[in-house]
Amino acid sequence: MRRLRKNKRIGYLYAAAVGMLLLSAVTGILLGAAGFTAAELMRALGPLGADSPEAMILRYARLPRVAAGLLCGAALSVSGVVIQGVLANRLASPSVIGVNAGAGLAVTLCSALGVVGGWRLSLAAFLGAFAAVMAVSLGAKKWGASRGTVILMGVAMNSLLGAFSDAVTILSPDISIMRSDFRIGDFSAATYTKLVPAAVVILTALLVLLTLANELDVLALGDDSARGLGLNTGAARTLFLLLAAALAGAAVSVAGLLSFVGLLVPHAVRRIATGEARHLIPLSALFGAGFVTLCDTLSRVILAPYELPVGIIMAFLGAPFFLFILIKGKGGHGRA
Questions:
Q1: pLDDT tens, N- to C-terminus, the chain (336 residues)
Q2: CA dihedral of residues 45, 51, 52, 54 (deg, nearest 10)
Q3: CA–CA separation, 255 vs 68, rounded Å?
């Protein structure tokens, strides 16, 4: 009976997650500095309105922006799930332990070299993210760092990589215009050139992770237990960190350094649903996609016709949540 109630609750959560995703996509398309009615939207989508101003706004501004919000929200949320599982720390996330900062440094270097989109940008972002997460992971393993120390290592990594990015920006003034929005996190510059390669990486990584959900649960039990169950912990850890870095790097290449998504969404889903990766991964992807897209829509309409970078909204929501987890969970040790 208890299992039946649990399955029923999870089913409701899937329905709520899909509903939130659809609501965020529709409102993201309809709302903005130039709002659409449903009739204007249908007309813009039809053959008679293909060359109308509404169709241009829809095709080149709203659709890539909404798609970017959905993909990046899902990517950062699931990246947070994986990093928390591998490091056994509920406070770990791409923005907290330096993964986003590593991808951000790579994107800044690419921008300074004139690469602003395409596969090279996504590849560079992935390599930067993977280098950062491996440095933190290997450092924590080598020195036997506690969970709290892992977070402090990530904070130090963020500061170091951020300093390198600032140095590149100072030496390359041409990219200073985009630097502010990039550091905060913003979807206003989302284009199909950036979105297509990132979408392929994100969707592929998500599909692979769904097939490895059981292995992630086993790895989260600890190295000794995982090895006792026949899992090659070293190879599994590297594979999962590769996938987490791919997700975070692809998201950063499109949206910049969005913070707290990979912390807030997995933690909330884990509290209201389950810690089993087979449900945690898809639910985090769905809720993360809807949540980020709704925040982006809010950032466009709250001060219309002016626009706030979505990263500001995320920081206002995420920073208090981080403090709540830190205090209630005793630095990641307690049952947050």
A1: 666 676 778 888 999 999 999 999 999 988 876 666 666 666 666 665 566 676 777 888 888 999 999 999 999 999 999 998 888 878 788 888 888 888 889 888 888 887 776 788 888 888 898 888 888 877 777 766 566 677 778 888 888 988 888 888 887 766 665 566 777 888 888 888 889 999 999 999 999 999 999 999 998 887 788 888 888 888 888 899 899 999 999 999 898 888 889 988 998 898 887 778 889 999 999 999 999 999 999 988 888 777 888 888 888 888 887 777 767 755 444 444
A2: 50
A3: 8
Establish if 322 belongs to a structural domain. Answer: yes
Domain encompassing residue 314: 2-328
| Closest to 252 in 3D by CA, of 91, 45, 68 | 68
Count of residues making up the chain:
336
- pTM for the model stands at 0.87
Distance CA 298, CA 6 (A): 33
Three-state DSSP class for residue 75: helix
- CA dihedral 261→267→268→274, nearest 10 degrees, is 130
Task: Give the other-Cβ count within 10 Å of 86's Cβ.
Answer: 23
The residue among 40, 19, 36 whose CA lies nearest residue 28 is 36
285 contacts: CB under 8 Å, gap ≥ 6: 74, 77, 78, 206
Query: Per the structure, how many domains does the chain have?
Result: 1
For residue 35, the domain's CATH number is 1.10.3470.10
